[in-house]
Model the fold of this input.
Amino acid sequence: MSIALFNKIDKTPVQNTALMIIDNLLQRKEFMYYHVDTVHGIHYAEVITAQAAMRAAHKLNDAERLQSLIKRYQAALCEEEGRVKNTRNHVDVNVYGILPLEIFKHTGDHKYLEQGIAFADGQWEKKLPNGLSSQSRYWIDDMFMIGALQLKSYKISGKEVFLTRTTLTVDAYLQKLQKANGLFYHGEEAPFFWGRGNGWCAASMAQVLTVLPEQHKYYISIKNGYIKMMHTLLQLQRETGMWNQLLDYKEAWNESSCTAMFAYAFTEGIKARILSENEYGPAVLKSLSALLQKMNLDGNLTEVCAGTGQSKESTYYLERPRITGDLHGQAFMLSFILSVLEEDI
Done:
């Protein structure tokens, strides 16, 4: 049964926007890096953008752009040549493993498969008594960072252990961190519903539910957590089609990266027949229209919150810099576009 929502979308500007974002990424001379103490490597925002760009180029049958993307990142992934020293000691750098796994998907070169799986297994080199990775910090973005790599490893290898790790983590985070309204505080000492922080959780659950069998032991738990969150997010969407930097603060500014994340989560839920198309479809269309207007002619998404630590003060969030072309926004604008273009799961 087709989904009428997709018949209401003019795909041409959507596809053109995807190509603009890909070209924007290819034109960046430097990689975005993450360096904190002993933790360093290609930043997760660039990794997620690169993976989405490769998937988009493949979806659009653009072999030239796909090969350009592979060439850009193949050099970066040649660890044996010492070009990139990516550590494997932190959740934010281990997620890097999705990039070699994506390259393996398009090239069939097993060295990239081995590298990606090594990063996934590395998350479980030290296991907690409850079975979780020692990289589990109970920060809300971990749900995506850990889940994305383990889920990608499952999709590529078919090995059940990776799905088990994914669902164990997502369920544990839901049980510990989700509030009664379905949303997530940025942290125990930061009692605010920050947009992008909640976006990681929404995107993570949406990704998992697209592949999780209904008979799986954690399916009901994750589905219920997802539906609870989506219901509240629907109520909090602004008339502009956007969501705010602090979700429940009416005076907060419209923020683009979380809007793309929530619209992505809605679209995946509709395709999986978990969310009502009649109820959530109009919200997707409003978000798509709003986000397309937030793109500039250089392929940059505007009004994206800068990287954000935790704070006890709401003014800290409300006054965060608004960045144009930040890769957190580029990544999920592409992911949302892909969700719209890939009309089936």
